[in-house]
Each structure stands twice: as C-alpha cells, then as structure tokens.
C-alpha cells in the first residue's frame, strides 16, 4: 500500500498541470470572442468575484483537519451534513458526463478541419463512433493511476494550451503590425455588458469551473498544506491571463460569425495562411486537440476519485469502492463510460434537426447550472465554517478575518446565483417555440437532477452510511 501511494505521489507542477487542464482550455476562446470587448469585463468579473473566491475557499477548506480527503464531498458534508456533501460530489460528477461529449466534439471539429476530413464531423454515425473511441481510449489510459494522468496533464497544458496561446499572441502582434484592421467583432462592442449579452455571463463562469475538482488527489500531492494554496493562487493568475489573451485575439482577428467548433483553427488560418491549411496550422490544430484530450483525461479521474471516497463511506454500493493495484476506481470508470456513451448517442443523433439543436443547447446549460448547484453548496458550507467552525485547526486562512472571508463567500455565492438566472434566458438564435421548449426542458431537467442525489441518499445512502461520515453534522442541526 505504501509503495502504491509513493508511486502515485504528485509533484507540485504535476498537480498544478492536472488542475489547470481541468478548466484552462483553448476550446472556449471562440465563445468568449463572440462577446467582443465585453469578454475582458466578464473574465475579470468572474475571475475576481467568482474564480478567486472558489480558489481561496478551496485553499482554506483543503487544509482544515478532517476535511482533506474526498474533496468537495468533505468540504460540504462536514459543515452541512452528509446528504449535502453527497449531492455536491454528485453534481460535480454528473455535469462532466455531458461535458466530455462537448469537449470531444471540439477535438473532432478541429481535427476534421485541419486534416481535411469533413465527414468526421458531418456524418452522425462516424462522429458518434469517434467520440466513443476517443473517450474509451483515454479512459483505458487512466487505469495505471495518476502517474499517466499527471504526464498527460503536464504535456497537454504546456504544449496544448500555453504554447498555442503564446504562438497565437505572437502571430497576432505580427498580423496587426503588418497593417491588418482589428475586426468589428471587437471594435464595435462595448466593455460593459448590456441586456443583449448579459446572458453570456454563464459561459464565462463555466471558463473557471473545475479548479476544485482535483482536490480528491490532494493526499497524493507533495507537502499539500504548503503547496495547495500556492497552486490555487497561481491558477487564478494564469487562468485569467490566458483566457483574456486567447479570447481577445480570436475576437480581434475573425470577422463575421465566429464558429464555436472551428474558431481557433480559423484564427490560426487568418494569422498564418488565410483560406488554407499550411503545415503550421495543421500542427497547431493537433496540439490544441491534444490539450483538450489532456483536459478530458484529467476529468475522467478526478470526480470519480471523489465518488470512490463516498463509496468507502457506505453511500454507494460496496463494489464502487473497489480499486485496482494502481488505486484507480475501475467500476466507477466503467459506469461513467456507459453514461458518456449514452449521452454521445443522444446528442449526436439528435443534432440533425432544430429540436436536436435545442436539446444540445439545453444539455450544455444543464451541465452549467448543475455544477453551479455544487458551488452554491460549497459557498454555503464555507459560510458555516466561517461562523461555526472557527476553532478547527487549519494551515491556511483566507485573509481579512470573518469580514474578509464573508466577502469572499458572498461574492462567489451571488455570482453563482446570477449565472443560474442567466442560463434561463433564451438565446437569440432560437425561435419563440424553440425558446419555450428550451425553458421547459431545462427547468424540468434541472429539478429532476437536483432531486436525484437526495432521493438516492434517502433510499440507500442514509441506511448504509458508516457512522463516522456524520462527524460534524450534529453540530449544525437545522441547517
């Protein structure tokens, strides 16, 4: 056991890269770019008022004695009670089962473009098979433990995210110095949002989601008490800087409608060889795809490790706590893979009609608001820690005492609620009938999904949980 633990020990940069690859990604730049100059406002707002509170709160909660295993399950479950901790880890995991498909769609769109294989992205059966093959291959790679995940994350982050972004920046500087005009997508927009683009807030919150998802691996990090807070601070700075650079360049270079799937490749084409794929464009497209693959890889293991911890507490059937000799929860990965395969079929074969497009957009919005539900529980739990758990020993404290901590938690909570509200604003691209379908489907799906973990806990978890899982909740009856 000690040998396995030692074998899976992660360096500071390895943990940093794995966490960064959970949320820092190139594929969201076209979405940001559609907002023009407003993207800078949104990225700064969400970075300071949401991302920073999540990072600061995570850094403190992760160093509290007794809160260091299980990630968001323990952070929420200890202060609010086991059922809320179970709901938080469920929401964190469930949203990514849809997110995997959308991330792999970007990979397919990029590769089909740079490799000149449009059929890969246009023929539903071929697209579905490609999604499934990519996902299951990446799942199989995780079976040898976090060593593989760490390596993929390191290379994916450095050559699949950081390198393309700085190449894009350098090319953009050369492009504008050569006399090219800045796109009206950027120049005709305003820094502050208005009623026409306020709904974009949810996309920018999504850009920073996931920084806490690596927390279940904190016990594998070298010197976690010192290194985890340092890593969180570094991630905030790098996340905001890279997203602002990438989104701004795409917005300033591309004219007209910006493609969500191919916007990054279109930008490289415009900067290097307008209208055609040169060798450099192809290489950059492959590197960006590799970066997204690394992100998928990191997401495959992080939430499932949290679920395995939950299973070890009796809240899931016994078989789901089983791990192989490398400490990987194989039964959970199989269940996750089956669910992702089902989502891939639903989204791929349902996207050929208007209703399919509505279903796809509904699924994306659903993933965001479900994840935000976990964050709302996270901030509420942090409030309880601030006011009722001050005596618990910890190695890091958010600066400013009770007032500073309350401000941090309050900002994060308010932005989370605001983002959920904006998700229920009908996109301009939908007709009135489609908008009605979108709202009804989203609302019903949201309510049903919110109920799932609480119903499951009531019917199974409460009866099978081990007594030690309720360590803190007796202190806060009535919460």
From TrEMBL:
An annotated GO cellular component: plasma membrane
Gene3D superfamilies: Amino acid/polyamine transporter I (1.20.1740.10)
Transmembrane segments: 38-63, 84-108, 123-143, 155-177, 197-218, 230-258, 278-302, 323-346, 366-387, 407-426, 438-457
The keyword Zinc appears for this protein: no
Compartments in which it is found: Cell membrane
Molecular function in Gene Ontology: transmembrane transporter activity
Keyword Repeat: no
Membrane-related topology note: Multi-pass membrane protein
Record-linked InterPro entries: AA/rel_permease1, APC_superfamily
A family per Pfam: AA_permease_2
Chief location bin: membrane
Keywords: Cell membrane, Membrane, Transmembrane, Transmembrane helix, Transport
PANTHER family membership: AMINO ACID TRANSPORTER-RELATED (PTHR42770), GLUTAMATE_GAMMA-AMINOBUTYRATE ANTIPORTER-RELATED (PTHR42770:SF15)
Protein name: Amino acid permease
